C-alpha cells in the first residue's frame, strides 16, 4: 500500500512532497547555483566515466585495486545521478513537487548505493592490507573470483539495506507537512514529517547507520593499523613513501565520505537544520563523487598513463574520422 500524506489544514489527502531545496534563494543565486552544480555534475560524470572505461578496458590495469576502483566510480555515477539532475531541474522551474513513488525510489537508490559504497571502501582497505602485508600471497588471496564476490556482496547488502530503510521511512502516514527542507528525499527529514511518534523509525535508522558505517570503519582501521605496523618495520624509506602514497588516496576518500554520512545519519535531529543539512548533503552527493577520481588519478602514475592512452586513442580516432 502506498503511504499517503494527510493535510490537516483542510482534511484532504496529499500525494506529493515538495522539495524546498534552494527555493528561497534569489533568481540570480539560483542561476549561479545551476551553473556551478551543472559544471560539477558534468565533471564528475566525465571523470568517473573515464575511470570506468580505462579500468575495464586497459589490460595494464588488470589488478584488484583497479577492479574495485572501477566499481567505486560506477557507484559514484549512480549516486550523483539519483539526486543532482532533479536538483538542476528544480533550480530552473517553479514546480518542486515529487510523488511518493519518486521519493521512495530516490531514497532507496541513495541508501542502496551509499551502503554499497561504504562496504566497498572497506574491501578496498583490505585489498591494500593484503597487497602490502602479504605480497607473496596477494594473487592467490585476491583472485578475480574473490574480487567479484566482494563487489557482489557490497551491491547485495546495499540493495537489501535500502529496502529496510525505505520501509522504516514510509511505514506510517504523513500529516504534519509535505515540505522537505532539502534538495532530495533524505530519510531523517521525511520521517520527521510523519504522524505519530517518529522516534522508533529514527532509532532503527540510527542503529542501522552504526552497523553500516562503523563496521566498515572497524575493518578499515584494522587494515591500516596493520599496514602502518608493516611500513614502520621496513628499513627502506623509499618503500615507505611509495606505500604511504598508495594508501593516502583511499584514506582521503574514506574521510570525505564517512564524515558527511555520519553527520547526516548519526547525529541527533535536534542539532540539524536546513543550513546545516544542505552543505553536508552536497558534500556526499556531489563533491565526494567528483573528488574520488581526481584523488585517485592525480596520485597514481598508472592511472595517469592509462588516462593519457585513452584520451590519445580518442583523439586519434576522431582525427581519422575527419
Automatic annotation (TrEMBL):
GO terms for molecular function: G protein-coupled receptor activity; olfactory receptor activity. It is found in: Cell membrane. It comes from the Eukaryota. It holds the Pfam family 7tm_4. Its main location: membrane. It is a multi-pass membrane protein. The chain crosses the membrane at residues 32-54, 66-93, 105-126, 146-164, 204-227, 248-267, 279-298. One of its GO terms (biological process) is detection of chemical stimulus involved in sensory perception of smell. InterPro entries: GPCR_Rhodpsn (IPR000276), GPCR_Rhodpsn_7TM (IPR017452), Olfact_rcpt (IPR000725). One of its GO terms (cellular component) is plasma membrane. Keywords: Cell membrane, G-protein coupled receptor, Membrane, Olfaction, Receptor, Sensory transduction, Transducer, Transmembrane, Transmembrane helix. Residues 47-296 form the G-protein coupled receptors family 1 profile domain. Putative odorant or sperm cell receptor. Belongs to the G-protein coupled receptor 1 family. This is Olfactory receptor. The lineage of its organism: Eukaryota, Metazoa, Chordata, Craniata, Vertebrata.
